[in-house]
Protein 1
Amino acid sequence: MIRSPDDFEPSLELSLHDDALAYVFTGDALVLAEREPRALPWRHYRMLGIEAVRVHSIGRHQGRDHVAVSLDASDAGELTLPPGLRAAGLRQWFGELNDTDLSIAMRAIQLLEWDRTHRFCGACGARTEHMPGERARRCSSCAMSTYPRIAPAMMVMVTRGRQMLMGRGLHFPRGRYSALAGFVEAGETIEQAVVREVREEVGIEICDLRYFGSQSWPFPHSLMIAFRAEWAGGEIRIDPNELADAQWFDPEALPGIPPRLSIARALIDATLAELSGFSSR
Ligand SMILES: [Zn+2]
């Protein structure tokens, strides 16, 4: 499961300088050195002739400034990168980039994307400007403020005896199943969202809801909040608008599951560990 280091200090104050570790994006693709993908000081990019178009301070970690950089003007076409650099979506860097750099890149892309999509006021359409001292943009005309969006979503692993409930989303990779998940609706608690989503997606009632953990998930701006729960009643009846399939799986006969670094995988692994002490009946 990926999370930024606990001693990472967010900051609004940092500027782009040669020694700052730069998280450079074109569109939603992270630009790294092809040979050795890791966060590099801005100097490396600058010396290759790369020009920053938008810059956001992220924060400090282990004495280094970390800064998000976008290479794109608002309506620029596709960028040609100098040799030695490679641009790829964040998910494609999973397993190549170390976890700390990846977790900070996940902060960077959310800030850049929020900034890019809030240049104009949602109420009156006038331009917005950065508010000094806050991670916010304010409308130059009606003064409405916007902050980086975070959309809470729930995930739950429901068990019945030794069996684990997993579903296949409509757009999952072939053969992949995972814990059920869904977004929290306006006015709902996270616990209510879990009960509702499970009921809606598979027609099952749950009990013994227990918090598992949470993970920031920048695709595009979720906070995934994960739970364990027990089956309380009902048989699987999927909502075909939400799921392609759902089944109870024995721990010994699991389908394809999400890769390392996702909270879904951490939740599945923790449930498997819990069930290993559970005698089969
Ligand atoms: Zn406005």
Protein 2
Amino acid sequence: MSETITCPSGLAGTIRGLKGKEGTLLADRAAAKSGATFEKILAACWLSTDDPGPYQVEEGKPLGWSKVLVADRFYTLLQIRALTFGDGYAFSVQCAAASCRERFEWELKLSELPVRALSEEALEAFTTGNRLETRLPHDGRKVWFRLLTGADEQRAAKSLKAGQDGLLQAALLARIVEIEGVAEKERRKFLDEMELADQVALLDRFDEADGGVETRIEVECPACLSVQEIDLPFERGFFLPRAKAA
Ligand SMILES: [Zn+2]
């Protein structure tokens, strides 16, 4: 069972579905905690590279997934999952309305999630030093940031686990290359004092540059009929779905 896919950056290649050995890997909680699981799945299920896109792949060598952009990594994982278990993805959601809190099942088709290709600008910046520019809307200062790779993501997860930074802070620090007029050692302090609106604007700009699969989805509670926006849950059930009762 294999399939040829083209990722948001233009990287194209052939993937296969998961095998029993990857099932064993997925059940390994220690590997999951260290972030090694997805790395191993990508390396095992990516059979060959047809078009390296923005990456440098040496003749006869496998693609180095730690250098691959998160948009491509996530897209590939999604395709591996769909190839293995089909396009339907069911998960449970709890209604966010305080008066309701109903728990319900939601199902969607993975192939129907919108995918944004990386912009020419982002690709150009990535291959020439990975430095993109933006401006803080309130502060007015310029900020340079990088597109996130697998290695950056792992580093951010580690600093988050070390408890040095909060979620938002870690997400920002993982990407910021330079802030105009702010020395690197002053960066944390600067972020602490930054307007929250500027932080959110920065994260939006990062998202826009990243491209990839849109994971904000709308669900409707069957009990109170309220429509709510949630992030696609990407947990254990994604790669190890429960067997459906016939
Ligand atoms: Zn509800």
